[in-house]
């Protein structure tokens, strides 16, 4: 650790000039400034100012603990490309290497995305008593309050900081909606975005089929996309965190349960991924916001189908001191669809790792564990 804990002289001035010089000439500080956003610098400055007030001691600062991890540059997939074979190959590499990628030129207008976030903010701004009138049902539709779920069941902290709202298939009578009196444009906005994001999901699944050396309509032919269980989940992460919640996550470490997830965010940082699940200690990397891009990741069911050829990557959301809004669309197979290893993903030397299972049984068990903590 000695090579990554720079020593600060006890008589060093706390002036901004000298502070900047320390940052620039610290080997680790320079490495972080090159690999991460400039927003990390104020955090470092606060640490140093606090240390420099007391000149009776020499301080060692562990910058790797105090500073955010470097950001990862994910592959960028252009959905408007007419070269489907090349696009599919790019998706295949992204799914094997990262399990995450950006999608641009997806066809969802900025106006629809802005409307989505505007209506989402309006709902989360309501008093808790009003939101709880639409509390999540046993069918997983409606509002979940902060601390209601624990995504990382091994965590010592119980209850993630976020609040959320689930919307199921838009023609589903099980959905819950805020009243038209309180939020007149809410339902139609959610329905509009749902239709658009579902269409993008279908286009991606077709390309993923090609990437797996299957017919582009494979998942449709086996019934996976007959009445697919697509869930739109609005998410709100708090800004100010009380002292009692320090150490908790907006969303603790987890992998998604279904086929693929399509995420849109308001641009606030906080999303981190861990590409190697079994690595110890885990290496977490930040995911940058790319304007007008969706963030797509592979879920556990797709990982099972592909015999781990495509990776379902651990991810989490850390508190950043500012409110954060996002909307995740989980495209899951029909509940009656049997998920078993694809022929193109196994061989004599690489036999199936998982037994066949009904999609609905798998998803229900994962949800039960999430909400039983």
From TrEMBL:
Keywords: Iron, Metal-binding, Oxidoreductase. Signal peptide: none annotated. Residues 227-333 form the Fe2OG dioxygenase domain. Pfam families: 2OG-FeII_Oxy, DIOX_N. InterPro entries: DIOX_N, IPNS-like_FE2OG_OXY, IPNS-like_sf, Oxoglu/Fe-dep_dioxygenase_dom. The keyword Repeat does not apply. One of its GO terms (molecular function) is metal ion binding. It comes from the Eukaryota. Belongs to the iron/ascorbate-dependent oxidoreductase family. This is 2-oxoglutarate (2OG) and Fe(II)-dependent oxygenase superfamily protein.
């Amino acid at each position: 650790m000695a090579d990554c804990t720079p020593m600060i002289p006890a008589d060093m001035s706390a002036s901004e000039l000298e502070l900047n010089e320390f940052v620039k000439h610290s080997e680790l500080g320079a490495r972080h400034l090159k690999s991460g956003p400039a927003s990390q610098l104020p955090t470092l400055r606060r640490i140093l100012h606090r240390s420099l007030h007391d000149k009776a001691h020499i301080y060692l600062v562990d910058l790797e603990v105090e500073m955010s991890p470097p950001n990862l540059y994910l592959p960028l997939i252009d959905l408007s490309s007419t070269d489907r074979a090349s696009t599919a190959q790019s998706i295949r590499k992204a799914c094997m290497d990262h399990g995450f990628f950006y999608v641009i030129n997806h066809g969802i207008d900025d106006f629809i995305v802005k409307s989505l976030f505007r209506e989402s903010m309006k709902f989360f701004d309501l008093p808790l008593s009003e939101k709880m009138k639409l509390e999540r049902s046993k069918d997983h539709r409606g509002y979940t309050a902060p601390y209601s779920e624990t995504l990382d069941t091994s965590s010592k902290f119980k209850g993630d900081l976020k609040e959320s709202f689930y919307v199921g298939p838009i023609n589903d009578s099980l959905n819950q909606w805020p009243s038209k009196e309180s939020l007149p444009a809410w339902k139609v906005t959610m329905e509009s975005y749902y239709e658009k994001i579902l269409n993008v999901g279908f286009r991606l699944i077709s390309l993923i089929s090609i990437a797996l050396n299957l017919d582009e309509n494979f998942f449709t032919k086996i019934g996976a996309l007959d009445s697919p269980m697509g869930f739109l989940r609005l998410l709100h992460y708090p800004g100010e965190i009380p002292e009692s919640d320090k150490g908790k996550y907006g969303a603790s470490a987890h992998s998604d349960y279904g086929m693929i997830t399509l995420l849109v965010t308001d641009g606030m940082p906080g999303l981190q991924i861990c590409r190697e699940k079994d690595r110890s200690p885990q290496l977490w990397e930040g995911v940058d916001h790319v304007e007008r891009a969706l963030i797509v990741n592979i879920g556990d069911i797709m990982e099972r189908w592909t015999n781990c050829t495509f990776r379902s990557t651990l991810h989490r959301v850390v508190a950043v001191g500012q409110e954060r809004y996002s909307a995740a669309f989980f495209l899951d197979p029909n509940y009656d669809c049997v998920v078993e290893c694809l022929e193109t993903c196994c061989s004599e030397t690489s036999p199936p790792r998982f037994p066949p299972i009904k999609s609905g049984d798998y998803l229900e068990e994962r949800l039960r564990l999430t909400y039983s903590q």
